[in-house]
Amino acid sequence: MSQMNARPDPAPSRLKYRMERLMLTPLFRLVLRFGLPCLLTFGIASWWLSVDDNRMKIIDTYADLRSQVESRPEFMVNMMVVDGASDIVADGIRQILPLDFPISSFDLDLEVMRETVVSLDPVKSARLYVRQGNVLQVDVVERIPVVLWRNERGLQLLDNEGVLVGPAFVRADWPELPLIVGDGADAHVTEALDLVAAAEPLSSRLRGLVRMGERRWDVVLDRDQRILLPETDAVQALERVIAMDQAVDMLERDLVAVDLRLPNRPTLRMTDGAVQELIRIRAIEAGEQRQ
What we know:
Elements: H1 14-23, H2 26-49, H3 52-70, E1 76-77, E2 79-83, H4 87-96, E3 103-104, H5 110-118, E4 123-131, E5 135-142, E6 147-151, E7 154-158, E8 164-167, E9 179-181, H6 189-198, E10 206-212, E11 216-221, E12 226-228, H7 234-248, E13 255-259, E14 267-270, H8 272-290
Parallel strand pairs: 2-5, 6-9, 9-10, 12-13
Antiparallel strand pairs: 1-3, 4-5, 6-7, 7-8, 10-11, 11-12, 13-14
C-alpha cells in the first residue's frame, strides 16, 4: 500500500539536466540557432552543386545576366575622339586601337590601351576615359621635336629629353631644327641646344653639331670650317670664339678649324692655300731683310 502511494521523484533525469544546462550556454544556443541551419544549408548546396548540369545552369544564368547588363545602351561606347595629337599621330592611334563600335565599356581595358598609345614614339603621355555621351576620349600629349639626329639609321627627330619622336626623311622638311650628328649625341640634346643658342650670331653659317668620340662637340660651319670644343665648359669656349670673331672677323679668314680642345692652348688651322701664301709672304719679308 505504501508503494502504491509513493510520489514520483520531482528531480529531472541526468540527461534532461544536462540538456537544460547546455541550453543555458550562449555558445550552444548560437550553434543550435545559426550553426546547424547553416551547416544543413551548406550540405544541401554542396550536394546540389556536385551535379554538373546544376553548375552549368548557374554559370549560364550569370553569363546571360552579365551580358544583358553590359549591353545596355548606357554602357555602350559609340565612338572615339583623339585630342592633343596631330592628324598623323591620331591616325596611328586609331590604327593600333582597332575598336569595333559600338562596344561595351566593360570590354575596354583602358590601362592596357593607354600603354599601347604611349608606345608610339611621338606620344609622351596619354589619358583614356569614357566621357558623357558614350564617347571614348583619348587625350594625348605629343613629344615636340627640337633637333634632328643623323645616325646610321638616317635622320630622326628627338625631343628635348633625347627621346625619339619619329623619322625625318628629308632634312629640308625641318629647316628650323638644328642638326646633330654622331654616336651618343641623343644623350646630350640639352647641351647641344645650349651650344646652338650660344652660336646665334653664327646662325646663318651654322650647319650642325658633331659629337666626337661620345665625349665632346665640334661646331660645323659653312666653308668646311669647324670649331673644336673642349669636353667641359663647351658653351663658354664657343662664346670666346664668337667674341674674337666679332672683334677681328677671325672666322672670315682662310681657316679650317679653331681648336679649343686645350683651353690654355687654342690653335688655328689654316687652309693649304693660306699656308702657302703665308710661306710666300714670309719668304719675301726674309729676302727684303737680307737686302
